[in-house]
Amino acid sequence: TNFYRAIIHRLHIGHLGVSGIGQSFEESFWEAVPQVPRDPHKARIGDANNLAYRSLCTRFQPIDMYRSGKNKNAKQIGYIVHAHCWLLVGRYIGIEIITENLKIFVKAVEQFWTQNIHLWMTAPYNKDIELVERSEDDGDVESSDDDYIPVRAWRNPAIVPEIQTIIEQATRVVHQSQPTTTMSWIPLDIAIQVVEITRLASATDTQNMLAAFGWRLPDSYWQSCCDMELIFEYGDLRKSNTAVDWQFLVLETEKLSEDDDWCKRSGLRTRRRIFQFLPQIRSIFLDMLEQDRKDPGSLSGSGARFSLRKPFI
């Protein structure tokens, strides 16, 4: 099952608006005739044919990027967006600025996919999810052997349960005094070098070594190890001034990254892919906004050259 929104374009009046959330049970993501609530604050859960939804929902035609002629006879077309991906788009770019400039936003995303059509049906994924910064990168990628078979790696990219669990544990762990040993007096810069080398081998070994030596490195060091743009939950945590065991948090996160099976099925992998696209989309969008500010109406042409049978974002 999939949850999605749509940017609905009512062609006869040139109006664009964001829909509520619809649910699809189709393996190919979309329904034959998608239906979504008109109200962006509502959701349709269950069978689209339920009569109770008819008055609340609107239908639209999602058409293929490769077969743009299907647009011609449609009254409404829709740019489908995964509901969870829409949350990430809003976080990275800003929901308010997008909804106030939907036509320009659609043009920006169209331009991105036009320039990156090779990413549409298949897209490379980093084998190592790189949850935290490391000194090595294997550079391996995984992709489909068939250029026309989509890579199915979608998991909820907005909420990653394992990350939430680590946060809960790291915010309730009581710092215990470390035993004093002869290793406790090693200068901090030397201790950090030892820790960084050990981290490359194993997060578990690093935890055991820190406990045995009685080392507790500064929070600032551990925070610098986190990719807080990808795992924005950690960035929010740092800003909240909540008491956090950052040493525990980072090493537990690294344990996840060492689990190949988890990395392959995690929503964080999907989030990384989305965040690889969003900087360029945001840059195009902001450039177009600036162009429109300097020359109002210069981007007012039709923004509906195509709609997408795969999710727009």
Written account of the structure:
The strands form 3 sheets. Strands 1, 2, 3 and 6 form a 4-stranded antiparallel beta sheet that branches. The chain has a two-stranded antiparallel ribbon with strand order 4-5. The longest helix has 28 residues, at 267-294. It has 313 residues and is α+β, with helices and mostly antiparallel strands. The radius of gyration is 23 Å and the shape is elongated. It has 2 domains: 2-125 and 266-294, no CATH class; 161-265, no CATH class. The chain is 42% helix and 11% strand. It has 12 helices and 8 strands. Mean pLDDT is 81; it is low at 122-153 and 302-309. The chain has helices spanning 51-54, 83-92, 95-100, 102-115, 161-170, 188-201, 203-213, 219-225, 232-239, 246-257, 260-265, 267-294; strands spanning 2-10, 15-18, 22-24, 35-37, 57-59, 76-82, 125-126, 141-142.
Integer tally of domains:
2
Amount of helix:
40-55%
Strand content: 5-15%
Order of helices and strands: EEEEHEEHHHEEHHHHHHHH
Global geometry = elongated
- Which spans have pLDDT < 50 for at least 5 consecutive residues? 122-153, 302-309
Q: Cα distance, first to last residue? A: 17 Å
The total count of strands amounts to: 8
Largest β sheet strand count, sense and barrel closure: 4 strands, antiparallel
Mean pLDDT: 81
Gyration radius from CA atoms, angstroms: 23 Å
Figure out the total of helices: 12
Oligomer: single chain
**SSE class:** alpha+beta
Short characterization:
This protein has 313 residues and is α+β, with helices and mostly antiparallel strands. The protein has 2 domains: 2-125 and 266-294, no CATH class; 161-265, no CATH class.
